[in-house]
Automatic annotation (TrEMBL):
<keyword id="KW-0614">Plasmid</keyword>
<dbReference type="Pfam" id="PF01663">
    <property type="entry name" value="Phosphodiest"/>
</dbReference>
<dbReference type="InterPro" id="IPR017850">
    <property type="entry name" value="Alkaline_phosphatase_core_sf"/>
</dbReference>
<dbReference type="GO" id="GO:0016787">
    <property type="term" value="F:hydrolase activity"/>
</dbReference>
<dbReference type="InterPro" id="IPR002591">
    <property type="entry name" value="Phosphodiest/P_Trfase"/>
</dbReference>
<protein>
    <submittedName>
        <fullName>Phosphodiesterase</fullName>
    </submittedName>
</protein>
Amino acid sequence: MNDDSSLRTLLVGIDAACDRILEPLFDDGELPTLESIYREGTNGPLESQIPPWTASAWPSLYTGMNPGKHGVYGFLNFDGYDWDVVNATDVHERTLWELLDRHGITSAVVNVPVTHPPREFDGALIPGYTAPEDPDCHPAGLLEEVRAAIGEYRVYPDEDAADLGQAYTDCVRMRGEAFRYLAAEYEPEFGFVEFQATDSIFHERPDDDDAIRSIYREVDRQLGEILEATEPANVIVASDHGMGPYDGLEFRVNDYLREEGFVTTASGGQGMPNWATVRDGNLKEGDDTTRHEAGVAERAMATAAGFGLTSQRIGAVLERLGLDEFVAAYAPTGVVNAGATQVDFSESTAYVRSRIELGVRINLEGREPDGVVPPDAYEEVRTQLIDALRSVRTPDGEPVFEAVRPREEYFHGPESEDAVDIVTVPADFEHFLSATLRDEQFGPPSEPWNHKLEGTVAARGDEIDPTAGVGDAHLFDIAPTVLSTFGIPFDERMDGTPLPCVDAAGTEKYPRFDGARSVETADDDVEKRLADLGYLE
């Protein structure tokens, strides 16, 4: 280590990394830099949170707190039936770099999800996932400065590229080049660089081993060049969740709730909006299928649905004919939704709003715009739902869920009222939960690979004792661990604690960041990207 280096601790985020992915690459000698950190330091599994998805998990990692405190539960922020993609103004706790700033520590942050628009701190930040392609950076004008120095810089891969794997690899390279530029220009004491492509490739091409390996090799190459250029005293590698095959079934929870009498449906465009009506660019902030002006095709489809010819039934026929994927690629989303069977809010007791939320919402009076469940019946209804969901079995007789529990067992804090009322955790994350209505409760998973609960963590450096290990590491432990490498107390309200491999500096009471949501994402390209990756149904 170079004692003159200003970079004290480098945090490397590798989205979806886990032993299942890393071990074969280590065995084949593909990742020498990353493997050296694992071999020379300490490492182990890193348990993610519920729900284990990018937009919620990264804020949990960099605040050290559960979503009930920081406020981000998924990719969408809801206001009644209106929605927007989440952004940094939805994060109601102080970030790791903001806490360091309070102690006079400077930071450089590159590509971390849900950091746009950036908030003031001493250092530099280029936002990551959920930001627009040309995001505001901190300080102002930084993106233009970086592009002038390194050439092209993209938040998302070039969708027009002939080789998607190469487009993702190029994004990885840009992260490393941008971070090295910021490290040289700003001389930060803390650095945080996140690589997203390691997750996205599995959503799009889970069987493309060449692309996956190419992306990981580039991560390793960029990490090696960062370490050589900055010589950090400490390096911590962490993922937000794992990744693996879904060998079970797709369980359509709203179809089940309909059969059990909790969900009532409507057709012809009347009912729960499809939150992912973004592919055609016909849905803007606050609009849904019941609010935009329907075209001739949509009106015709809605009329047909009123007579029972719904999109679901047409889709079933197309699926049997092997034409479903072709038609889905070209049919206007508004037409499909106009003919879809949807949850009828005004007549339903409970429903799944978004599969990413990993749970069921009760249609509560006074909270939901069309709430029907009186507050004094809330606990009775919730108990009925929990009992019903716990009883669900696959056609082979296996439990669909490993846990069906009240939300307060997972979420606590001032933002917990925004959580689902009942948390549903699929067994071993082998089953794909869906909010769509397909007239059948079970089917094949929409995505053959998706998120798993077990990620990974590794640490090496001057403040790291490899003999102490990482213990039962949890996602919430990363922020207090980073603070401990600086000898800085962590927030007493954090849900995590420093890993055993570092010396904890005690706790301190920090004021909560509680700024109001002030910026709308309202970016069609971001919404389309999330839909394409399967995060929005």
